[in-house]
Amino acid sequence: MQYSQQVVVKRWIPILKEYERTKDKINPRPFKFVKDICEAYHISKKELVRYYRKWIEGGKQSESLLPHKRGAKPGSRRTPKLGDGSIN
After folding, report:
1. Is the pLDDT of residue 86 over 80?
2. Is the entire prediction scored with pTM above 0.70?
3. Alpha-carbon distance 22 to 28, whole Å?
4. Neighbours of 65 (CB within 10 A)
5. How far apart are CA 18 and CA 12, in angstroms?
6. Is 13 among the domain residues?
7. What span, in angstroms and rounded, lies between the C-alpha atoms of 79 and 21?
8. Has residue 81 got a pLDDT over 80?
9. Is residue 85, in this structure, part of any structural domain at all?
10. Mind giving me the DSSP string for 16-83?
11. Is 88 inside any structural domain?
12. pLDDT tens digit string along 32-47?
């Protein structure tokens, strides 16, 4: 894992764990409301929920928080590359 990826993971894992504790009302917890978490970490609720959904769908694996590969969008009009070099 590259350093920039480690930074993303180390930032978001504690935030997401605090979000779970606050959402499930597990005591003791340092934040009473989700908005308090957002204010403390300077993030929006939308961003927090988006990362939480990615983390849950990825089986709570740290790699699920990393950005996906970029490429052509489905339905774009790019012609596919032919593997053998011949033109049909």
Report:
1. no
2. no
3. 9
4. 19
5. 10
6. yes
7. 48
8. no
9. no
10. HHHHHHHHTTPSS-S-SSHHHHHHHHT--HHHHHHHHHHHHHTTT-GGGGSPPPP-PPTT--PPPPPS
11. no
12. 899 999 999 999 999 9
pLDDT confidence band for 78 (50 / 70 / 90): low
Per-residue confidence (pLDDT) for residue 40, from 0 to 100: 92
Residue 12 CA, chain-centre distance (Å), reads: 8
Torsion 74-75-78-82 (CA) sign: positive
Pick from 65, 44, 63: nearest CA to 54: 65
Chain center to CA of 86: 41
78 lies in some domain: no
The count of structural domains within the chain is 1
User: Which residues constitute the domain of residue 14?
Assistant: 3-65
